[in-house]
Amino acid sequence: MAGRRRGAAAPTGTLRFVLGDQLTRRVSSLVDLDAGCDVVLMVEVRDEATYVRHHKQKIAFLFAAMRHFAAELEAEGVAVDYVRLTDAGNTGSFTGELERAVARHRPERVVVTEPGEWRVWEMMQDWRETLAVPVEIRADNRFLCPREDFAQWAEGRHHLRMETFYRGMRRRTGLLMDGGEPAGGRWNYDPENRKRLPRGHRPPDRIGFQPDSVTRAVIALVEAEFGDHFGDLTGFSWPVTRADALAALRHFLADALPTFGDYQDAMKTGAPFLYHALLSPALNAGLLTAEEVCRAAERAYRDGAAPLHCVEGFIRQILGWREYVRGLYWARMPGYRDTNALGAGRDLPWFYWSGETALNCVAQVVAETRAHAYAHHIQRLMVTGNFALVAGLDPAQVEEWYLIVFADAYEWVELPNVHGMVLWADGGVMGSKPYAASGAYIDRMSDYCASCAYDVKVKAGPDACPFNYLYWNFLIENEDRLAGNQRMAMPYRTLRGLGDRRRAEIRRDAAAFLDALEARPGADQRGDQTDRVT
């Protein structure tokens, strides 16, 4: 039973502080653990649940996974000092609980693995100064590219392109390599991975995990303590143990990976998961490791169980994007989050929380995010993200929303993806151009538009899809910043050919819509758009 504490009668050898997203026995802080004299410290603290108002399922997932991991350590004979959220004397912070644990156990030293977020890294530097015992901070060995290696690769580069990094990681790890060449003769199979779901296509049923008594107790705790946070706990079914995470991986490899690549960019009403892995919460919390997941996917290709384009697309998300954004985060922090290359500053609309908008695509994604603490990468990039970009929403507010609502969100992965990829707020450090699009892209890759109050085929007026005129308005507003970008040459040529009357119509439609946006409950996003050029 998690919660057993080693008594303070005799000094402890090493106090090993394991954070809630480091739940693997092979994490660097535990690799040399001596069960005879060491103590593992784990804590549930209010500060970490509320520094942003995390989705209720994210809090429940982490607390449940922590309690199960602590129990597994105890079953191994390891002494675990586990502090629960409602324990008497809980200070509510990492620092306060570490200080109390040092006083209880009188260790010779504290060992901890480096954190995923800058704010916790700064805390750890303070621990070295304020605690009465030495604090050893170890590199996070769960990643395939150490922070120092990425920093060396990035040194002197203004533009940090993922594709270049990814190819280096393929060579470094040997994943999907045949000698010195990429498997199949190509590095990237992205063109094969952009198919729309055929009409009537039924995706596979996805595995879920019924909460056990430990998880049910955590769900009740979260509802009682954080009931006013965003999200719904009713359908909680995330894997919260190593065994369940491995079962989820096996299910994905057998039932979804063989078709994952084809439809990884597709979206469908009422099908939030499609062929996606759903492994990122377990992966980011330590229940799975990046290497074992990539190796398992490669074995599926080598064994003939999944085609190369599907496996390469999946491995690229982990070996490429995941490792890349983590490296970029640490190489460019803390100043990275403060840039705002496009000068965006509009408040986040209330419908990002309520889902109450006539934009069916946004309403669908927000509703699914509330229900599952999940949306797949195209929903994040090309629906909620695309709207944030073309509407000129304030980067800090958008980034906080993404950090709050997803079960897999930590600043190291959320900030570069949103700041650089979604919003282009870094001015091109990550991406060569903004990922702005009209309603045509969403219509091509989903069935959302068929049930929308707006008409994606209409370009102007109150019935037009707002993405259509917001896209062109975005180009107009950022013409001075973006017209010289070679990858934006084609849309700007088209814009220049529209003429003054059409440009004025775009500006008026966009202003009417954007002026009607509200950052509070009860807003009507349709607005009055009758004053336009005809």
TrEMBL record:
Q: What's the short name of a Pfam family annotated to this entry? A: DPRP
Region of interest called Disordered, as start-end residue ranges on this chain = 181-208
The protein's name is Cryptochrome/photolyase family protein
Query: What's the source species' lineage?
Result: Bacteria, Pseudomonadati, Pseudomonadota, Alphaproteobacteria, Hyphomicrobiales
